[in-house]
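Order emerges. One example.
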Amino acid sequence: HDLTLSFYGADGRALAEVRHTPKSTDEGDAILCALLSLARAQGIVLVESIEPAEIVSVLGRKADAVVSDAAPNTTGIPFADQSRSADRVRSVLFFARETLREGGTFLAKIFEGADSDDVVRELRMSFGQVRRIRPAATRKESFELYLLARGFRGS
C-alpha cells in the first residue's frame, strides 16, 4: 500500500508531496513521524482555519491522511496542558471525520494523560486500528506521543 503525504498552503497550492511504498506497517509508521518532523523543520505550516469542504475541493477527493503536529501553548501545569492537548486532537479528529476517505489514516500529537485515554477510545469508534507511538527521539521527560489511527470507517 503506497503512502502519500501532501502539504498544501493557504492558497490551495501544493507545497510538497512525498510517496513511498513501505515494506511493513512499522516502517510506514516511522516514515509518517519522520515526514511530520521534516515538514515542521522546513517551516511547512498547515492552515487551521480552512473549512473541511475546502480541503476536499482542493484535493479533488477526500484525503488519504490527516496529520497534526499541533500542540497548545503549555502552562507548566501538566493536567491542564494534557487536557488542552486532548481538546486540540479532538478538534483535528472532527476535521478528519469530514475530510478523510474510508480506510484513511489519522496521526496526531498528544500529551499523554487521562484525557489521552479518552481520545484513544473516541478514535477506536471511527478507526479499525489505533496505536500510540513514542518516537525514539522523544526526550524521556516529555509527555508527547503520537496517536496513529488507520482504517477510517467513514463519517
The radius of gyration is 15 Å.
